[in-house]
Design goal:
This protein has about 190 residues and is α/β, with parallel strands linked by helices. The protein contains 6 helices and 5 strands; from the N terminus they run βαβαβαβαβαα. It folds into 2 domains: about 100 residues, Ureohydrolase domain (Arginase, Chain A), CATH 3.40.800.10; about 60 residues, no CATH class.
Length: about 190
């Protein structure tokens, strides 16, 4: 293992003990990054924690519908991301890896902080055009800057709308509790969303 790859040492842990990703139609892929968080770092460990918790589901069979994703699902492990690089470079790496995966699989990304959402939306937009967005969060993530920086984990919704990645009329935010300033709090509504 080379220097800088320490965060990938736990990749023997796979979601629902699914096989490694190959030709399966559905993929689970981790995005272990929290370099843009302003408080409570540790989200980079989220993908592995979700995988560990999934192992408690035993066979993965839904108790009511009697279906399982196993047989259709592969675990693509975690994206390879630089440990100490500017956010723009990390996002470019995420987008490139996500684009390649989305070309072959329907993907669920297990993530770190919210800054990873923007490159994932960019990758999906490349394939599908403007997207609908349902955003479950306590915070609106519509700040036009991130503590003086042009981009960060609290700006991705604003940036996605500005770039035309998501359709404003098909954007819904649920669970917001942080008041913030009016311009940020009501930005999605001002653009035509809910």
């Amino acid at each position: 293992m080379s220097i800088g790859e320490f965060s990938y040492a736990n990749n023997s842990n796979r979601f629902l003990a699914a096989p490694e990703l190959a030709q399966q139609p559905f993929a689970v892929v981790g995005v272990p990054f929290d370099g843009a968080v302003t408080n409570r770092p540790g989200a980079r460990f989220g993908p592995q924690a979700i995988r560990s918790a999934s192992l408690m589901l035993c066979d993965g069979i839904h108790p009511h519908f009697e279906v399982t994703p196993l047989g259709h699902l592969g675990d693509g492990h975690d994206m390879r991301l630089p440990n100490a690089s500017p956010l723009a470079e990390v996002r470019a790496r995420i987008q490139a890896q996500a684009s390649a995966l989305m070309a072959r699989h329907h993907c669920v990304f297990l993530g770190g902080d919210h800054s990873i959402t923007l490159p994932l939306l960019r990758a999906a937009h490349q394939q599908h055009g403007p997207l609908a967005l349902v955003h479950f969060d306590a915070h609106c993530d519509t700040w036009s800057d991130h503590f003086g920086e042009p981009s960060g984990h609290g700006t991705w919704t604003y940036e996605a709308l500005q770039e035309g990645l998501v359709s404003p009329q098909h954007t819904v935010q649920i669970g917001l509790r942080s008041s913030g300033e009016r311009a940020a709090r009501e930005y999605v509504q001002d653009q035509g969303g809910l």
